[in-house]
Design goal:
The complex is a heterodimer of chains A (554) and B (322).
Chain A: H1 6-23, H2 29-45, H3 49-56, E1 68-69, H4 71-74, E2 76-83, H5 85-106, H6 108-111, E3 114-117, E4 124-129, H7 135-143, E5 160-165, E6 168-173, H8 186-197, E7 206-210, E8 214-220, H9 225-232, E9 238-248, E10 258-263, E11 270-274, E12 279-280, E13 284-291, E14 297-303, H10 305-317, E15 323-327, E16 330-333, E17 345-349, H11 354-366, E18 373-381, H12 383-436, E19 440-441, H13 443-472, H14 477-509, H15 512-547
Parallel strand pairs in A: 1-19, 10-16
Antiparallel strand pairs in A: 2-8, 2-18, 3-4, 4-6, 5-6, 7-8, 9-11, 9-12, 9-15, 10-11, 13-14, 14-17, 15-16
Chain B: H1 18-38, E1 42-43, H2 45-48, E2 50-57, H3 63-71, E3 78-83, E4 93-100, H4 110-123, E5 128-135, H5 137-165, H6 168-192, E6 195-196, H7 198-228, H8 234-266, H9 272-291, H10 293-300
Parallel strand pairs in B: 1-6
Antiparallel strand pairs in B: 2-4, 2-5, 3-4
Helix pairs in contact in B: 1-6, 3-4, 5-6, 5-7, 6-7, 6-9, 6-10, 7-8, 7-9, 8-9
Classes of the chains: A alpha+beta (554), B alpha+beta (322).
């Protein structure tokens, strides 16, 4: 018979109520948003009277989570950047060179002279030793340098591998180290981009790693992708190198272990510097825009303790030598070391403006990007277009909703009204879940909601049609209702599981707006099945208990 | 008084014109594939790389002047079209400019965008760039792969699910209907040269989901009837089933179409292509679940003895109670 235990009734109504409570703030979107922003600002920067008023505008006992609006509704910029990991590999090999050299120097009596080959393939380090017969000893010495890496599969995997052929030793990163899923490369890049884009912490950017070496950057409210690219800026790799020659020609051969670098200002000026840096931007702890003794804009910086020690030691050993400061492969300045600098702080002077010195200081503070970025995809959506889309979506939703409500009421009478109540609850629940899980609503997402409105009635239609059929075979109304639900269930479940499968695949493979669509579609399926087999049924049962009709018309 | 889309009891012979409907379906599929191969699809930048710029100006759009300004930059093929939508205000004149991917460039082209924007600003000082999208050829190639993979994965997963829940003949029938729907949708996109982009793929997958929904409901009832009428010829059981579920099929398609038509008219031009694809797919999908899926099952034949002790898979959820 038509019976639903009391606890089940309370549970069903409780879930509906919770959904509505969570959905409620979205009805007052701008007010709640102001409240949330003010709360965040007070936390970050302290309270002001205006902020307190903004906080008061929404009672704190109500939930204040909102559905996030996607870029296409809110306006903003989207970039897909690729990190050139080869640069990183090459860099790491450069970093290994001093260690390799020292290890081989330690067994010089066996291997003889050691020379680094510039012709090494990219991402590898090649060294020639004088005595080829000492190769086994050299390889043993170098293998000691390898550090273990933690991987899911390989126990005892090392970060570098060493091979010898003739008198040439090749050192390169192991395959385990290169594409390790938690490989550090895009990770620091991610953090650094976040710091550059969001120094103040109020922009709410989405910065995600995608695939092996890509980074997705989405910043709402920013004017254009070009503006965002300017914020992310250049690599800002700062290094300090000993200068070999300050008067080089563009096609001079720099010689082994050296590189030829162009001057930033004077394009005709070239320097030959040692390729291994004494220090790099990673050793900086702070950078600030400042002015030099001539009143020109400059950037002052401070090294961390170990950097300060290296810097002090190097400058005291090389008084009188030239020392180049290189930013992104261009020499900014190459002054003479007049006296040892032991305080651990210094100044970069060059042809700066106030703006460029400020920007450089920001970039240096955020840290250098470990590698160069190229942008594979860039999208800008203006806020007006987003507003238009929201407006159009809202009107379409309302019209679609009313049309479906009227249609259902005409087709199924009283039962149609129950289905309509469930449909209203369904949309409330969808918004509640979207807010609670912090999902992002996109324009295709709105389409997903409208589509769900159309499809949500399906489960009810299945049940009602079935009840009609069962009534035809002249059973009592209560039996017909019961059988209707029972027999329609397998069709409802099968039909919705298959649709849910496609929503899952859309979510897994889609990106951006498409994913937004998959989320609303998937949630819509869950809520519509819930409302159809629990909520509508509860309504019908409660109505039936009160009226006890002898006959029903569906 | 109730609104009825179909009479209380129908007794339509859905197989009476089986040859005709089958012929129509096959012909439509061949036509679609031919259009796809001969005319080709109007791929959006998601799949072909390139840049689209959406402009909005107070003055009416002068396509010729825009074209002269942009073509002076020598960016290869440029297409400019004015966009109309009932939701626009009088002083809202919108145009879409599409520039192909520049030769030899892997990445998106920031400099090109800046040059185009500067050139257009000279022609029309009030112009605003409401959306600028640029996709490099490298990403677009991968997006095509992912899209194809998504459609195939969805079909594969559905095939397996139906196979597990019903019989393999049903799975084949359902997939035949899905392929029919997807090909017809690609065909209409090719014939009408509607922009085919990532959103269209999402639409295709939605169609797949909806169409399978429809088909499964009919199959579910068919399975039930096969148990009930063990000796009736398969074709008759199928007819009975379709008649029994006809009212539901049309009701659900009706409500969904109502919602979609509202979006199609009022939802704005940005998602019109997307909504059109879904609307078309629902019409085609409803047709295919009545005329394609079952016919394929009929051709393949099906196990008639469902009276196993466990009662078959269909009752697995039968005793779930509210």
């Amino acid at each position: 018979m038509l019976q639903i235990p009391a606890w089940k009734r309370i549970l069903i109504l409780g879930v509906c109520l919770a959904g509505l409570v969570f959905a409620f703030p979205n009805a007052f979107y701008s007010r709640v948003e102001q409240h949330n922003d003010a709360v965040a600002e007070i936390e970050a920067m302290g309270s002001t009277p205006e902020r307190l008023i903004a906080v008061e505008s929404w009672p704190s006992f109500l939930p204040s989570t909102l559905v996030n609006l996607g870029l296409d509704l809110r306006g903003g910029a989207h970039l897909l950047a690729e990190v050139h990991v080869e640069d990183v590999y090459a860099d790491r090999m450069d970093g290994y060179w001093p260690e390799v050299r020292d290890a081989l120097v330690g067994i010089r009596d066996q291997v003889g002279f050691v020379e680094r080959l510039d012709s090494a393939p990219e991402g590898t380090l090649q060294v020639r030793i004088q005595n080829a017969e000492a190769m086994p000893a050299a390889l043993d010495a170098l293998r000691e340098l390898a550090r273990p890496v933690a991987t899911l599969t390989g126990v005892g995997a090392r970060d570098i591998q060493v091979a010898g052929q003739g008198s040439v030793i090749t050192v390169e990163l192991t395959p385990e180290e290169k594409p390790a899923p938690d490989h550090p490369t895009p990770q620091p890049a991610l953090e650094i981009i976040r710091r550059r884009v969001d120094e103040v912490g109020t922009r709410e950017p989405t910065i995600q790693r995608q695939g092996e070496n890509r980074i997705l950057i989405q910043v709402p409210g920013i004017g254009s992708a070009a503006e965002l690219k300017a914020l992310i800026g250049t690599t800002a790799r700062l290094t300090f190198h000993p200068v070999v020659s300050a008067s080089a020609a563009p096609n001079d051969a720099p010689g082994a272990g050296n590189i030829l670098v162009q001057d930033l200002e004077n394009e005709d000026q070239y320097y030959i510097v040692e390729s291994t840096a004494v220090l790099s931007g990673e050793d900086l702890v702070d950078a600030q825009p400042t002015f030099d003794q001539n009143g020109q804009p400059a950037v002052s910086f401070r090294f961390n303790p170990s950097g300060a020690r290296v810097f002090g030691q190097y400058t005291s050993e090389n008084v009188g030598a030239l020392f180049a400061t290189i930013l992104d492969d261009r020499v900014i300045t190459a002054p003479q070391i007049r006296e040892p600098i032991t305080g651990g702080s210094g100044q970069i002077t060059g042809n700066f403006t106030v703006e460029s010195s400020t920007q450089l200081a920001v970039l240096l503070r955020a840290g250098a990007l470990p590698a160069e970025l190229t942008f594979l995809e860039e999208r800008t959506i203006g806020p007006e277009l987003g507003q238009d889309s929201i407006e159009a979506g809202r009107i379409a939703c309302i019209v679609a909703f009313v049309a479906v409500l009227v249609f259902m009421a005409l087709a199924y009478g009283t039962f149609g009204l129950f289905a309509n109540m469930a449909l209203l609850l369904n949309v409330g629940l969808m918004f509640g879940i979207l807010s609670a899980i912090g999902a992002t609503l996109t324009l295709p997402g709105i389409a997903g909601i409208v589509l769900t409105i159309g499809m949500a009635v399906d489960a009810n239609v299945l049940v009602f049609e079935r009840i009609r059929e069962e009534l035809r075979t002249a059973k009592g109304p209560s039996r017909a209702i019961e059988l209707g639900y029972e027999r329609a269930l397998s069709a409802i479940i099968d039909a919705n599981i298959t649709t849910f499968i496609t929503a899952t695949i859309l979510f897994a493979l889609g990106s951006g707006p498409v994913r937004g669509f998959a989320v609303t579609l998937g949630i819509g399926i869950l809520t519509s099945v819930f409302t159809a087999i629990f909520v509508t049924r509860l309504f019908i049962v409660m109505w039936f208990e009160r009226k006890r009709p002898r006959t029903i018309e569906v | 008084m109730r609104l009825r889309l179909v009479p209380e009891q129908t007794n339509i012979d859905f197989f009476r014109f089986a040859r005709v409907t089958f012929g129509v379906s096959v012909a439509a599929m061949i036509l679609s594939i031919a259009a796809w191969l001969l005319i080709g699809l109007n791929f959006g930048i998601d799949f072909r790389g390139g840049t689209t710029i959406r402009t909005e100006a107070v003055q009416p759009v002068d396509v010729g002047a825009y074209r002269t300004a942009v073509e002076a930059l020598n960016l290869g093929q440029v297409s400019i079209s004015e966009v109309f939508d009932p939701s626009f205000d009088d002083d809202q004149n919108v145009a879409m400019i599409r520039i192909e991917a520049q030769e030899g460039q892997e990445s998106a082209t920031g400099e090109v965008i800046e040059a185009v924007e500067a050139a257009l600003l000279e022609v029309e000082p009030s112009i605003k760039f409401t959306s600028v999208e640029s996709v490099g050829p490298k990403v677009s190639g991968e997006l095509i792969q992912t899209a194809i993979l998504a459609v195939l994965a969805a079909m594969g997963a559905i095939l397996v699910y139906i196979w597990l829940r019903f019989e393999w003949q049903f799975a084949v029938g359902a997939i035949a209907a899905l392929i029919h729907d997807v090909i017809l949708t690609i065909g209409i996109f090719s014939i009408l040269q509607i922009r085919f982009d990532l959103a269209t793929i999402a639409a295709l997958l939605t169609i797949v989901g909806y169409s399978i929904n429809d088909t499964v409901v009919i199959f579910d009832r068919l399975r039930e009837n096969l148990r009930k009428y063990k000796t009736t010829p398969l074709q008759e059981v199928m007819n009975l089933t379709t008649n029994e579920t006809l009212s539901r099929t049309l009701m659900t398609s009706g409500t969904t179409l109502l919602a979609l038509i509202a979006l199609l008219i009022l939802g704005g031009d940005v998602i019109r292509g997307f909504i059109f694809a879904i609307t078309w797919g629902i019409v085609v999908g409803t047709y295919s679940s009545v005329y394609v899926a079952k016919n394929v099952v009929l051709m393949l034949g099906v196990k008639r003895d469902w009276s196993k002790p466990d009662g078959g898979a269909g009752t697995r959820f039968g005793n779930v109670d509210a």
